Fold this protein.
Amino acid sequence: MKVRVLLLGCGNVGRGLCSLFSGKGKELAERYGVDLSLTGAATRTHGCAVDPDGLDPRDVLSGRAFSTRPSRVSTMDLVETSGYDVLAECTVTNPETGEPALSHIRTALERGKSVTTSNKGPIALRFHELRALAKARGARLLYEGTVMAGTPLFSAAHPGFLGAEIASFEGVLNGTCNYMIERMKTGTTFDAALSEAQAKGYAEAEPGTDLGGWDTALKALILAQSFLDFPPMSLRDVDVEGVYGLTPDTLVEAASRGGTVRLVAAGERPCAGSGIRPRISVRPKFLPADHPLANLPDTANGIVFSSDATGPVSFMGAGAGGPQTAFAVLRDIIDIATGMKAGRK
Ligand SMILES: NC(=O)c1ccc[n+]([C@@H]2O[C@H](COP(=O)([O-])OP(=O)(O)OC[C@H]3O[C@@H](n4cnc5c(N)ncnc54)[C@H](OP(=O)(O)O)[C@@H]3O)[C@@H](O)[C@H]2O)c1
């Protein structure tokens, strides 16, 4: 069965997805019985490329597709009018408005098209609206790549906790901050740790979103709405403190107390009927050495859920990276495609 994919954004993630299509397309068709066809691609600077018979993902990678199969329409027109079954939204995250991804996703869902995105903005800021729209239009909205992108989290935990009520989570969700903390533990200064993280490609040239805790806050919003049934929320509902106040001395002192410090996102389901507006926190927290999040190496991420039916359950793994996040998007596409094949939307 042919499943047509429209890809928006050909940066680290979009390119990773093209590589996976190119390298694994045949194997996926044999294994899942779905022929994934890239019928459109768009970037901000190259514009749009369209081929109803399928673009060669290698041509998208090389940029050739944008000259041999160009389309003069805008990205939004492509979403609104072109033929596709799944929108893969991989454009840049806007933490304040979620745009332009929010409009892309809304428009696709309005058309009854299923969506996968690695873009945190729209999912964090408009989770309930988009989920309701997907449901109303009989489409699916998946977002595996938004949090702990290199670790299957939503696809494992949502079905895994069926029948249980998740009561709380604690997560280390930003690899840049984790890496810097690990380096400062060995005496490296904050500035030197940041330079190292930038040299290794772990930190952005403008690291404020990561170090200020805002990237973690967006992820925490997604987790709280997705797993704890929090109502619609915004960044104003998150108490955010980043890692700017941490020094090697803080970490030496934490070690002398038998633990370490991590940038921890925490959310707890309020008691029903308490009238308390739920809040989330993101802040550096002391963790004893035997805490599951205390020993995450380098850029690793981790999360611990507590539920009414289980003890603490932890997930650990890669948090980000172009190829890893592309895999999360591919996973969602296969999930949607195999569902279509089975007659589920
Ligand atoms: N990289 C990771 O490790 C990672 C992990 C988890 C989540 N994410 C999220 O995944 C998304 C993609 O990340 P990335 O690392 O691939 O970002 P990136 O390298 O900056 O690429 C973003 C892409 O979006 C395109 N774009 C921006 N506005 C557009 C528009 N209006 N229409 C069409 N294309 C547009 C850009 O085009 P130009 O190149 O022409 O400017 C670029 O190709 C982001 O939302 C990011 O937060 C990334």
In short: The longest helix spans residues 12-32. The chain has a mean pLDDT of 96. The radius of gyration is 21 Å. The CA atoms of residues 144 and 283 lie 24 Å apart.
